[in-house]
Amino acid sequence: MTQVRKAIIPVAGFGTRLLPISKSIPKEMVPVVDRPLIQHVVEEALAAGINEIILVTRSGKSAIEDHFDAHVELEDSLASKGKDDLLKMLADIAPPYLKITSVRQPNAQGLGHAVFCAAHLLSKDEPFAVILPDVLVKPQLGSTTCDLGDMVTRWDKSNAAQIMVEAVPEEEVYRYGIVDCSGNEPNAGDSVDMRGVVEKPKPEDAPSRLSVIGRYVLPYRVMELLSDQPPGAGNEVQLTDAIDRLMQEGKPVQAFRMNGRTFDCGNIDGWLKANSLLAREAGYDV
Length: 286
Ligand code: G1P
Known about the structure:
Blueprint: E1 6-10, E2 31-32, E3 35-36, H1 37-47, E4 52-57, H2 62-67, H3 72-80, H4 84-93, E5 99-104, H5 111-116, E6 128-131, E7 135-138, H6 147-158, E8 161-167, E9 177-180, E10 191-193, E11 196-199, E12 210-218, H7 221-226, H8 239-248, E13 253-257, E14 261-264, H9 268-281
Parallel strand pairs: 1-4, 1-6, 4-5, 8-13
Antiparallel strand pairs: 2-3, 6-12, 7-14, 8-12, 9-11, 10-13
Bound molecules: 1-O-phosphono-alpha-D-glucopyranose (G1P).
């Protein structure tokens, strides 16, 4: 049994890059092929052996919680018509071992602040995962690897924090957290020690081209560091900065290079690409 039982999923963002779609629909509820984005992400957590999900949410986004709740009228209606296949589909969205809790982020002060909103739901010294739901991480076609699951296994063996990374072109480093691995580059499916991480650097200041994707396995200490983390890039409390302080304290942090593929569904272009590619792979005639 893994030590990592909880995943924090921040869902309080406005989703401005998906407007007008996301005006009254939470961006996490937009469909990717046959299910909402958030369902893919929760399935990824379950595949990694993480059954407890903490949503950090805000007003106007209750459709996300409703999606994982029972829908008694619909279930009664399907049962009375003998539609067992649809009943099973609904049951599979939230199997009994999946526990979903939500907390509110009262005002948007950055990713670090969102993650810290869940601090009181962890036991002291409990490690946790963070999953940013804009980005889908899927195995390569024909593979069943689960990168998040591999990160959890690595944490369990080494107690080194794991940060999932992938290479980006130099002109895109300013959009991401960029890791410093002392010039080493992990192979796919492997981790190397990090010595720093910087949020949204200018290309000339970037320590590498390895960007933080949005999958983290972190020690509880990060919550303590977030409790007094001053605002950083964009005047927001950055998770990246707390992870950098963790390394300055001498705690082990490693960059894990994913085996799989990412789809950034937080913008129209990436969301459309994810739908067209994944729909064809799933056998839809599009
Ligand atoms: C956040 C993180 C950043 C990471 C990115 C991945 O930035 O702060 O380190 O690289 O997610 O998508 P955001 O996209 O919220 O600005």
